[in-house]
Specification:
Elements: E1 8-13, H1 15-25, H2 27-44, H3 49-66, H4 68-81, H5 85-93, E2 106-112, E3 117-126, E4 134-141, E5 147-152, E6 159-162, E7 167-171, H6 184-192, H7 197-206, E8 213-219, E9 222-228, E10 233-236, E11 243-246, H8 268-278, H9 288-295, E12 319-327, E13 332-337, E14 345-349
Parallel strand pairs: 1-4
Antiparallel strand pairs: 2-3, 2-11, 3-12, 4-5, 5-6, 6-7, 7-8, 8-9, 9-10, 12-13, 13-14
Helix pairs in contact: 1-4, 2-5, 3-4, 3-5, 4-5, 6-7
Length: 350
């Protein structure tokens, strides 16, 4: 196995069959992710396990009422991995236990109309302890579009793209939350099952959501950004240029007041300003190489777009764990495992 590459697993069939294949192929990664996630919860939040299991069971019921078919995948993975269903559901709800556990991140989406090229990507800033449990996973469900994600083993969906032209990046969005509801990984899974922005907004709006999240999209309708709160889904579209940028604060005018209620997550505004500077030449000049260079930027190092460990009291241990750029029409993900200033971008095909 090449050290720079993640494992790439390809699974297919019914939800139950897909889950069984994931559990069989990724037993060690699943066990490691579950153990590390429990350790992080117990060390940082000091929560009793019975409280966590209450959130697991209540959130499972929300999913059962909204998208029961997706729970079959977790059941299948539990059967073949030797873990429990609750272990796998815990992975889906762990970021409901704290407001900013998911990730920092700097994302973009753009469309070059003349060449009919859509490019979307991000730096994923998080705990480097999650790297050993990160894989590239292609699912080919019966009667639904195939999709590929770069993800921690066990998550029902994550950053990725589908053969129907839907691609998504994720950013934490500090905003009001609640402990129970449909975990946002499940709403993202439904996004990959469709083929339009309208479908994405509809399925997310239909769920009783537990936490806020920002979803940067590339769709057949062009780039879009969804600022998702527990009460609403706000859509941002490109204005003059066909490009969108997002970090970790609200940009929609209707949500701007939320920003003052929460601490800024890992220098969100400076990162957004820097990406705007780096891409100010516009979509026509953007290329895979120029986008990689932007994600490697070290202005304000180590608190930079390409983020490195530092002395920040809250998130100083977070760094860019991986960097990804998706070429949607080509069906390719370019992924740097680790800081993109140090690791080469490897190509994975859908």
């Amino acid at each position: 196995m090449i050290a720079n590459r993640y494992r790439h697993i390809d699974v297919s069939g019914s939800h139950l069959e897909i889950g069984r294949q994931i559990g069989e192929s990724l037993k060690e990664e699943l066990r490691g992710f579950v153990e590390t996630s429990w350790d992080r919860i117990e060390q940082t939040l000091k929560l009793r396990r019975e409280i966590v299991f209450s959130v697991i069971h209540q959130s499972t019921q929300f999913v059962r009422n909204w998208a029961p078919d997706l729970l079959d995948e977790l059941s299948g993975a539990a059967q073949s991995s030797g873990l429990s269903f609750d272990d796998l559901m815990f992975l889906q709800i762990r970021n409901q236990l704290t407001a900013d556990m998911d990730s920092g991140c700097t994302s973009f989406s753009l469309r070059k109309e003349q060449q009919q090229i859509s490019l979307i990507g991000q730096n994923w800033d998080n705990d480097p302890a999650l790297d050993p449990f990160t894989v590239v996973l292609t699912r080919r469900p019966n009667n639904k579009p195939a999709f590929m994600t770069v993800t921690q083993a066990g998550l029902i969906a994550y950053i990725g793209m589908s053969e129907a032209g839907m691609a998504a990046c994720l950013n934490s969005l500090p905003a009001p939350a609640r402990a129970v509801g449909v975990p946002h990984y499940f709403t993202l899974r439904r996004v990959f099952e469709g083929q339009s922005l309208e479908h994405a907004v509809s399925v997310i709006s239909d769920a009783t959501r537990a936490i806020p999240a920002n979803i940067m999209l590339s769709t057949p309708d062009g780039p879009a950004n969804l600022e998702v709160t527990i009460d609403d889904v706000k859509v941002l579209r490109p204005e003059a240029e066909d490009v969108l940028l997002h970090t970790n604060h609200c940009l929609h005018p209707d949500l701007a007041s939320i920003n003052g209620q929460f601490p800024e997550l890992i220098q969100s505004r400076p990162r957004l300003e820097r990406m705007s500077q780096l891409l100010k030449t516009g979509v026509s000049c953007a290329s895979m190489e120029s986008l990689k260079a932007a994600l490697q930027d070290h202005t304000e190092f180590p608190r930079s777009v390409c983020r490195h460990a530092n002395d920040d009291p809250g998130h100083g241990y977070w760094k860019t764990v991986f960097s990804v750029i998706m070429s949607v029409e080509a069906g390719e993900m370019h992924i740097a495992r680790g800081n993109p200033c140090e690791a080469p971008y490897e190509v994975y095909g859908l």
